[in-house]
């Protein structure tokens, strides 16, 4: 689906980091990686961490997430977004998607906050998720949430390199979280980054990420901390990957375009999002996602099984959190869009390292299921 593309540059970076003697969870590669992510996203501060989930968790703690308060978040997401809320003990309240692209319905997210506030509930954060590398409607959410005095924590785990209205993914909100998990558009094999313009938030998160150790000559602790730092070795890989991020995006965009061209004759099939840059809004094309619609008479289950039988990894879109057994009793504001997309949607192999003949193979298998050559 999205295999990491690594080569001699990553190998060199690893050797450089090892030879430097900084085989530690901090060091010059971590500092440089944080500075480079700031430069890429236009943020003032960045904190390299062991995962995107850790970035969400620490940001939520800093925003005041705890038992008794609410966090509003996209229902259609990977479990990590909701898990981070659960770690804090806050109540997760889920919001449905727009059918057009699966991203959270921004008006519905704002309305959810209004309803909760009218009930006297405290909403400490709203987490919209940039699905499959496409930014949510940041303009509507930014203004709307500011009016409601609710900080936005952007889950940009999947969208590094994407833009919205000329600003980078991760540049919106009080803070944003990236993931460098092995399947993302760029990777450190496992890792994440928290970014923000708020120095206090990042400083506090940095302190919590290193077991909340106080400044003292001995090990002094007044709060519970976490072991969430990124290693210097992995940051070196991240820097080599970041230098190639634009190439990865170009390749993934080209792959998306191959699929678009190959399926243009299939009525009722629809791509989620677009491979184009429209007025400074562009996806990173991390994954190509398709709504199979109803006309072709094949649902997501059937297509995923068919691709699998042909040794091709197709995947269902994220199963919405409000449909998950774990979250079935949670409060959710639902319009049916994410359930529809879950039934009909799949992602197609999109890794930057895939060759054109491998993409042709996917296209051939996909078309054969529809009885087309
Ligand atoms: C939307 C979303 N949020 C959060 C995460 C968590 O990132 P990580 O795996 O680095 O913890 C991921 C990916 O794994 C993700 O896709």
Structural notes for this entry:
This protein has 373 residues and is α/β, with parallel strands linked by helices. The chain folds into 2 domains: 235 residues, Type I PLP-dependent aspartate aminotransferase-like (Major domain) (Aspartate Aminotransferase, domain 2, 3-Layer(aba) Sandwich); 125 residues, Aspartate Aminotransferase, domain 1 (Alpha-Beta Complex). Helices cover 38% and strands 14% of the residues. The strands form 4 sheets. A 4-stranded mixed β-sheet has the order 1-9-8-5, sandwiched between helices. The structure holds pyridoxal-5'-phosphate. Pyridoxal-5'-phosphate binds next to helix 3 and helix 4.
Number of E-state strands: 14
Q: For the CA atoms, what is the radius of gyration? A: 21 Å
For the biggest β-sheet, the strand order reads 1-9-8-5
CATH class term of the largest domain: Alpha Beta
Number of domains: 2
Pattern of helices and strands: HHEHEHEHEHEEEEEHHHEEHEEHEH
- Based on Cα principal axes, name the global outline: globular
Annotated CATH architecture of the largest domain = 3-Layer(aba) Sandwich
> Could you please say which CATH topology of the largest domain applies here?
Aspartate Aminotransferase, domain 2
Q: Which structural class do the helices and strands define? A: alpha/beta
Mean pLDDT: 96
Cα distance, first to last residue?
Answer: 23 Å
The stretches of 5 or more residues where confidence is low (pLDDT under 50) are: none
Percent of residues in β-strands: 5-15%
Distinct helical segment count: 12
User: What is the helix content?
Assistant: 25-40%
Q: Which ions and ligands are bound to the chains?
A: pyridoxal-5'-phosphate
Write the CATH homologous superfamily of the largest domain: Type I PLP-dependent aspartate aminotransferase-like (Major domain)
Describe the main β-sheet briefly.
Answer: 4 strands, mixed
